[in-house]
Amino acid sequence: MTRKLHLNALFHPSGEHLAGWRHPDAPADAATNFAYLRALVEKLEAAKFDALFIADLVGVPDSKPAVLERVAVVNDGFEPTTLLAAVSAFTTNIGLIATASSSYSEPYSLARTFASLDHLSKGRAGWNLVTSLNDSEARNYGLDDHPLHGDRYARAEEFHDVVSGLWDSFGDDAFVRDSASGRYFDPAQLRSLNHRGEHFTVAGPLNIPRSPQGRPVIAQAGASEAGRALASRIGEVIFSGARDIHSAKEYYSDLKRRAVELGRSESDLLVFPGLTPIVAPTLAEAEDQFEALESLLHPVVGLGDLEYWLGGVDLTQFDLDGPLPELPVSNKSISTQQGIYQRARERNLSIRDFAREAGRGDSIIVGTASDIADHIEEWFIEGAADGFNVVFPFLPTTLHSFADLVVPELQRRGLFRTEYEGTTLRENLGLTRPERRAAA
Amino acid sequence: MPRPQTLQFGALLYGSGGHIAGWRYPGARPDGQLDFDFYAEVAQTLERGGFNTIFIADVVSIWGHQLDSLHRTARSDFFEPLTLLSALSAVTSRIGLVATATTSYNEPYTIARKFASLDHISSGRAGWNVVTSVVPLEAANFGRVEHYGHTERYERAAEFVDIVTGLWDSYTDDAVIRDKESGIYFRQDGRQKLDHRGTHFRVDGPLNVSRPPQGHPVIFQAGASETGRAFAAKYGEVLFTAPTSIAAAVTYREQLDEALREIGRDPGDVRVWPILSPIIADTDDEAAQISATLGSLIHDDVLRRLVQDNLGDDDLSEADLDAPLPEALTSTNRSQSRRDGILAVARAENLTLRQLAVRFASSNSAVGSATTVADHIQRWFDSGAIDGFNVSFPYLPDQADRFVNEVLPILAERGIFEPATASTLRESLGLPRPAGRVFQS
To answer: Quick one: how far is CA B125 from the chain centroid?
Structure first.
């Protein structure tokens, strides 16, 4: 079977760039405008995207007030599972991947919500398993600080195992619903989980049958050692934060190797680096769009974003025209912090220059459809990616131009589908439907 | 605000129907539980008829713990309410969307967010039925050996609701200015942190979504015990009740109004909707026949568990269905008001277990032609004690179709019903929009 490229759309309706909501073409109320979002998603489905992917935080980060007041994304937006359930009602093929934290959810509730979404969408649900990074999130859930890095991952792993066990509560054909005999389900196919672990005690069974996909697709983005170990064991859609093809290939091969060592097949997990495209019919037009966007980013917001990813430091205590100082290891995303240092060293950027780029997000590419397609093709062929998480910096412009210009180019090159392979997310990703786990 | 002069209706939707054997009834949809298109079809029928809202009940476990009866009922397979109603919001335009969510096994920040999100998605149609969890098995799904005791359950619920409504007030209505020119998304003086430190929860806030279109999604409640009634009076805006007679409904409303005045609430701001299970046919005789058939479709094991589940934890597995109720029944941590009422009636009428069980299965029913059912509804409404009904259709889609096509037009003709037309749930119920609270700083 020829490998086929996969595309997920990652977006907040206000745009992922921190100044995206200010763009002249964006409706100011995009964050909570469902009708607007609906039109965007219909465009994605017409372009045959594999999935819509919604990121999430369970609280507003502790950034400086002067930064927060200028940002849409973390302050205002839909909750992912309710949003994607609503999206399921007007779409038929596109996958629906919601982020949900293993740090501040109960596995029973989460297992139910995603199984319910899988039934509602007839097999299109995916769960992006994250651990929560922010103290401000912890303080919405009864704690003073978020758990330490290692504890977070141990809990996440147990959490996942409980959830997937609950999804297997019933056999696939347990529900016979035979009116004549009055037999609704076969009790022999019901199994209680009776999990007793370090972090959770959950009896089960789940109150919903095994879902159309057997289990919703598991997405994961682990990049640190603990994160890679978890992603290679349980992940099926893996988000890679790699910014260049060398680190992307390293990550890709490492994840596949780890998975194979754990008895999985290479094709059981798909690696998706990020791609933030600003595309236009000519390079000059694309560059103009990019410049216009960057001019909308207030310097204090860029600096605030950099401070956040470095673990909550105040950079104004340093010379902004000097180099980035070495700071303590972050208890947020270790890999992101390290990536920032690496870039700072390689390009000899001052703090101020760095902050200007902060709003761009990962892997921004400015160019024509053919430039973007070249990048995608190279990474796909060279073993750096099975697909891409396409991040739209401002909407609707960048989504429309990607769908209208880049997707047809990828299709012409025979890289991307012209019709959906199936109606479930697993079918479209080429992932096998998991068998129900055998009884312990 | 004054109580409305016309009837309001909510529909307790349960895939294949609310009657425990409804899924088996000829013409019902045995696989309706997880058929979203079927839900959408019924929701659209109710919206067309002018229902104020759809309501989804919930427990956070399978609905019963005895496999012998459970596997003969549609009580182990249901959508999670918030996801179901979010999906239904996209295929409806006016009808309210009320989801049950427990305060016992959720976190307030999560619940505040999800209902705010549903309210934004639906442009102001969300409602939250606040419950505490008492069904066996629920506790064990959340790391507890037993569910919370009666008092603690309600204390936790009160703290939970205070936090949720506080989080909905994180932003003032005009805080999120989204001024592209200046680059200011929200005014800092229009956002506040809750900084809640209580017995059961610590929640700092703020919520990460702008204030819901309705200010607060509408609060539904069904507390019936003494503690439950006090809770309902304090927080509820629409109260689900299950009175056994019109006289009981009148007494309930009088006591409620008094309790509301005592705590400074306007009785006009609270709606009372008893449960109603209509069985409608062309004639009264045919309707009675349907009711009898439904009763006969309940398996003996299910009948036995029906009594058991309604009373508490008593073991009736060996009891003779056609003998009177056993004398020795133990007290439980379940809803006590309900248990006491049931036992009194059963003993007074010397009912057998079978008779009692069939009665449970068809409780709060109105059986007859459309005119008979309309008469029943009018009698209750004329008492002045109720504002509408929470309608549970025994099987679907037939009974919802009949109610909308046959009963509602009669009530409209009599001038006691007007199809709901408002675009938000609050407006359709005639309830005031809550002003944002300002926290102490």
So the answer is: 15
pTM: 0.95
Instruction: Say which amino acid occupies B250.
Output: V
Mark yes or no for CB contact B82/A65 under 8 Å.
no
Complete domains list, chain A, with CATH: 6-282+362-429 (3.20.20.30), 298-358 (no CATH)
Smallest Cβ–Cβ distance between B86 and the set A69, A86, A142 belongs to A86
Beta bridge partners of B388: B8
Residue type for position A46: A
Give, as one character, the DSSP assignment of residue B212.
P
In chain B the domains, ranked by start, together with CATH numbers, are 8-283+363-429 (3.20.20.30)
CA distance A373 to chain B (A): 33
- pLDDT grade for A305, boundaries at 50, 70 and 90: confident
- For B244-299, how does the pLDDT look when each residue is reduced to its tens digit (9 = 90+)? 899 999 999 999 999 999 999 999 999 999 999 999 999 999 999 999 999 999 99
Dihedral (Cα; A172, A174, A175, A181), 10-degree rounding:
150
Q: What local confidence, expressed as pLDDT, does residue A332 receive?
A: 65
Enter the DSSP assignment of B270. -
pLDDT bin (cut points 50, 70, 90) of residue B326 is confident
Contacting residues for A132 by C-beta, under 8 A, at least 6 apart: A57, A58, A101, A103, A104, A138, A146, A152
Whether the CB of B66 is below 8 Å from some CB of chain A: the reply is no
SS3 state at A19: coil
What is the rounded average pLDDT of the residues A403-420?
Answer: 98
Query: Rounded to whole angstroms, how far apart are CA atoms A49 and A26?
Result: 22
Nearest Cα neighbor of A234 from A168, A131, A158 is: A158
Which pair of structure tokens corresponds to residue A339?
């990536």
- The backbone torsions φ and ψ at residue A330, rounded to the nearest 5 degrees and listed phi first, read -75, 145
CA distance A225 to A221: 12
Confidence of residue A135 (pLDDT cuts 50, 70, 90): confident
For residue A10, with 0-12 CB atoms within 10 Å meaning exposed, 13-18 middle and 19 or more buried, which class applies? buried
Strand pairing report for A183-185 and B126-131 = unpaired
Burial, B263: exposed, middle or buried (Cβ in 10 Å; 0-12, 13-18, 19+)? exposed
- From chain B, the residues in CB contact with A143 under 8 A are 202
Tokens of B182: 């200046």
Alpha-carbon distance B27 to B16, whole Å? 10
Strand locations in B109-266 (E) = 126-131, 196-197, 202-203, 218-221, 238-241
Does residue B107 sit at the A interface (CB-CB below 8 Å)? Answer: yes
Q: Residue B360: pLDDT band by 50, 70, 90 thresholds?
A: confident
Residues 6+ apart with CB under 8 A from A432: A268, A426
pLDDT in tens, B183-234: 999 999 999 999 999 999 999 999 999 999 999 999 999 977 788 899 999 9
Q: Is the ipTM of this complex over 0.90?
A: yes
**pLDDT for the residue A221:** 92
From CA B375, how far away is CA B379, in angstroms rounded? 6
Cα separation, A196 vs B340, in Å, equals 37
Which chain B residue shows the shortest CA-CA distance from A37?
A: B121
